[in-house]
């Protein structure tokens, strides 16, 4: 991969559907708005809304501020869209991803396992935990997982067989890095799916991820979770 591809300041960010909607709400608001307000207007979990807001900040399309308050209490973090013609400056997040992934791959005794553990934590963070009384069946678990994957930019297809599903992922948001460090990045993605399914107390588990079966297609294989695992999730 060339240095120009990693650091090209003329490259324009490509926004997924959810992130584009978040940006539209920011631009329509005029005044800075908080995470909860954005989440309610766009119909996202607050953690997912924050994820997209921070992504817009990284892309130079929004800015993060501390709300001015005249009353006691901790001030909120609020977000505002940047001016359309504001100079964004050079940002090299792909280069940063390459550097950090190389660090994990070169220094961790089990880089794949470390990446999977980190992915699980992010999966739990991004998923919306159902109410204690709510039972999540296989179809609902696939729907919830697919929503998180879609919001993260994986472009998942709809799943026909919810009992032993395979989710076809049409886009890898970290493809260039994954091609260089497949063990780390694909393990991170597998962990992400496992974390989501664990958080929603799904009767399914992410069994394995089959990367790049076609140039723009990965397959996420799900399988029934053990009764013991389901019992731990219900606590």
What CATH calls the topology of the largest domain is Muramoyl-pentapeptide Carboxypeptidase, domain 2
| End-to-end Cα distance | 47 Å
- CATH homologous superfamily classification of the largest domain: Trafficking protein particle complex subunit 3
Total number of helical segments? 10
Uncertain runs are 1-12
Strand numbers in spatial order across the main sheet: 1-3-2
How many domains, as an integer?
2
Q: Beta fraction of the residues? A: 5-15%
Percent helix, as a range, is 40-55%
InterPro entries: ArsR-like_HTH, WH-like_DNA-bd_sf, WH_DNA-bd_sf
Protein name: Helix-turn-helix domain-containing protein
Describe the structure.
It is built from 10 helices and 6 strands, in the order ααβααββαααβααββα. The chain has 235 residues and is of the alpha+beta class. The chain has 2 domains: 79 residues, Winged helix-like DNA-binding domain superfamily/Winged helix DNA-binding domain (Arc Repressor Mutant, subunit A, Orthogonal Bundle), CATH 1.10.10; 123 residues, 2-Layer Sandwich (Muramoyl-pentapeptide Carboxypeptidase, domain 2). The strands form 2 sheets. Strands 1-3-2 form a 3-stranded antiparallel beta sheet. β5 and β6 form a beta hairpin. α2 crosses α3. The longest helix has 18 residues. The radius of gyration is 19 Å and the shape is globular. 33% of the residues are buried. It comes from Amycolatopsis acididurans. This is Helix-turn-helix domain-containing protein. Pfam families: HTH_20.
């Amino acid at each position: 991969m060339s240095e120009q591809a990693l650091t090209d300041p003329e490259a324009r960010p490509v926004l997924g559907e959810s992130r584009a909607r978040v940006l539209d709400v920011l631009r329509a608001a005029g005044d800075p708005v908080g995470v909860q307000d954005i989440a309610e207007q766009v119909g996202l979990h607050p953690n997912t809304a924050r994820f997209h807001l921070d992504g817009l900040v990284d892309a130079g399309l929004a800015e993060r501020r501390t709300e001015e308050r005249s009353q006691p209490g901790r001030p909120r973090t609020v977000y505002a869209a940047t001016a359309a013609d504001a100079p964004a400056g050079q940002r090299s997040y792909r280069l940063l991803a390459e550097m950090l992934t190389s660090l994990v791959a070169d220094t961790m005794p089990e880089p794949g396992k470390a990446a999977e553990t980190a992915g699980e934590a992010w999966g739990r963070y991004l998923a919306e935990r159902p109410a204690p009384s709510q039972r999540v069946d296989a179809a609902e678990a696939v729907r919830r997982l697919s929503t998180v994957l879609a919001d993260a930019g994986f472009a998942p297809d709809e799943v026909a067989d919810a009992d032993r599903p395979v989710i076809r992922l049409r886009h890898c948001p970290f493809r260039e890095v994954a091609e260089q460090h497949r063990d780390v990045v694909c393990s991170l993605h597998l962990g992400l799916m496992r974390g989501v399914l664990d958080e929603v107390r799904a009767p399914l588990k992410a069994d394995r991820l089959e990367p790049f079966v076609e140039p723009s297609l990965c397959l996420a294989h799900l399988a029934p979770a053990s009764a013991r695992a389901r019992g731990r999730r219900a606590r």
